[in-house]
């Protein structure tokens, strides 16, 4: 049996001696029987007819080689490089030189060395508290062995720790300042080892009440600040909404309404203009009708209506109308008829 670590090189020995009666051609063959019995044996390298063939098995292609350059000298050993977990299995060496035949089997085990080991403290490092010292490798083939050591502060371990010095976890109960110091944890298996360091400082208990009170005050201040921000945002939104509504209601293109007095005056003025352009035949009826139609809500009158001056109407030209003038006698001052 051969045990090797992952990534290393495994030397598989196979030596033979030829007899005087062995006169046939020399053939050397290496076979692999995988750990999984469901798989058939695989030829991994072959020497025949003074030639080497090493491309039979894809899983070991480029990683298996004869160690000797002169195989006829009696050395058929091989090297398997960059070992993987898939290389685990039984290797068989067969040597043929008629009429002689010989074989040898070697069981190869590939293990993973411990690596990436991490040491840490699980719990609070305070006087009187309970916590744990832990040692965890990232990888490593079983079985694993652990060994704790104290590297400082008198290098004396508490008696209660002794049963756990070979385990991955040390449970600390009712811690004291004497436990403070630097510790190492070494992890081992059959193919290698790894180590990590840990610094333990046991300190007095912290002021938890003050810490909790400070946290509560901080939370309350944060809530107040958030409330102020929300209030300001809502107030600003209400102001913006009010400004939009006011702006929407105001129409700049509509002129302001006229006063009642100006409306009445303009109405009266237009009627006066109309009266000036009317003929004597319809003036009387128009004047009576139009002034009676002035709206009461647009024109405020005095208690007594003013007397309008009599309009002077020019006498009609009767000659243009086809009428015959009639002479009317008039009496002079002295009584004579003119």
TrEMBL record:
Component of the epithelial apical junction complex that may function as a homophilic cell adhesion molecule and is essential for tight junction integrity. Also involved in transepithelial migration of leukocytes through adhesive interactions with JAML a transmembrane protein of the plasma membrane of leukocytes. The interaction between both receptors also mediates the activation of gamma-delta T-cells, a subpopulation of T-cells residing in epithelia and involved in tissue homeostasis and repair. The keyword Signal applies. SMART domains: IG (SM00409), IGc2 (SM00408), IGv (SM00406). Residues 242-314 are annotated as: Disordered. This is Coxsackievirus and adenovirus receptor isoform X3. It comes from Balaenoptera musculus (Blue whale). It is found in: Basolateral cell membrane; Cell junction, Adherens junction; Cell junction, Tight junction. One of its GO terms (cellular component) is bicellular tight junction. It is a single-pass type I membrane protein. Residues 242-255 have a biased composition (Basic and acidic residues). Gene3D superfamilies: Cytochrome c1, transmembrane anchor, C-terminal (1.20.5.100), Immunoglobulins (2.60.40.10). The keyword DNA repair does not apply. One of its GO terms (molecular function) is cell adhesion molecule binding. Residues 259-295 have a biased composition (Polar residues). The chain crosses the membrane at residues 212-233. InterPro entries: EJ_Adhesion_Regulator (IPR052307), Ig-like_dom (IPR007110), Ig-like_dom_sf (IPR036179), Ig-like_fold (IPR013783), Ig_sub (IPR003599), Ig_sub2 (IPR003598), Ig_V-set (IPR013106). Residues 1-109, 114-189 form the Ig-like domain. One of its GO terms (biological process) is homotypic cell-cell adhesion. Keywords: Cell adhesion, Cell junction, Cell membrane, Disulfide bond, Glycoprotein, Immunoglobulin domain, Lipoprotein, Membrane, Palmitate, Phosphoprotein, Receptor, Repeat, Signal, Tight junction, Transmembrane, Transmembrane helix. Its main location: membrane. It comes from the Eukaryota. The lineage of its organism: Eukaryota, Metazoa, Chordata, Craniata, Vertebrata.
């Amino acid at each position: 049996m051969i045990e090797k670590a992952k990534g290393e090189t495994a030397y598989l020995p196979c030596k033979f001696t030829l007899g005087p009666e062995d006169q046939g051609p020399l053939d050397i063959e290496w076979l692999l029987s995988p750990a999984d019995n469901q798989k058939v044996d695989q030829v991994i390298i072959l020497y025949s007819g003074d030639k080497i063939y090493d491309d039979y098995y894809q899983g070991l292609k480029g990683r298996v080689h004869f160690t000797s350059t002169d195989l006829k000298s009696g050395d058929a050993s091989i090297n398997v490089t960059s070992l993987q977990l898939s290389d685990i299995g039984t290797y068989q060496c067969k040597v043929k030189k008629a009429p002689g035949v010989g074989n040898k089997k070697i069981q190869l085990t590939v293990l993973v060395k411990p690596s990436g080991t991490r040491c840490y403290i699980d719990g609070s490092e305070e006087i009187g508290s309970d916590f744990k010292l832990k040692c965890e490798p990232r990888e490593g083939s079983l079985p694993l062995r652990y060994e704790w050591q104290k590297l400082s502060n008198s290098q004396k371990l508490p008696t209660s720790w002794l049963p756990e010095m070979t385990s991955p976890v040390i449970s600390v109960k009712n811690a004291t300042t004497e436990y403070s110091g630097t510790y190492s944890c070494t992890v081992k298996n059959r193919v290698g080892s790894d180590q990590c360091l840990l610094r333990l400082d046991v300190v007095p208990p912290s002021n938890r009440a003050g810490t909790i009170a400070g946290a509560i005050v901080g939370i309350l201040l944060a809530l107040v600040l958030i409330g102020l921000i929300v209030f300001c945002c809502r107030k600003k939104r209400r102001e913006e909404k009010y400004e939009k509504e006011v702006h929407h209601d105001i129409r700049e293109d509509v002129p302001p309404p006229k006063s009642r007095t100006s409306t009445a005056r303009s109405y009266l003025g237009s009627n006066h203009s109309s009266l000036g352009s009317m003929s004597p035949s319809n003036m009387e009826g128009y004047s009576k009708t139009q002034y009676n139609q002035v709206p009461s809500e647009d024109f405020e009158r005095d208690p007594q209506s003013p007397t309008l001056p009599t309009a002077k109407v020019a006498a009609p030209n009767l000659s243009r109308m086809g009428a015959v003038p009639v002479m009317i006698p008039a009496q002079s001052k002295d009584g004579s008829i003119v």
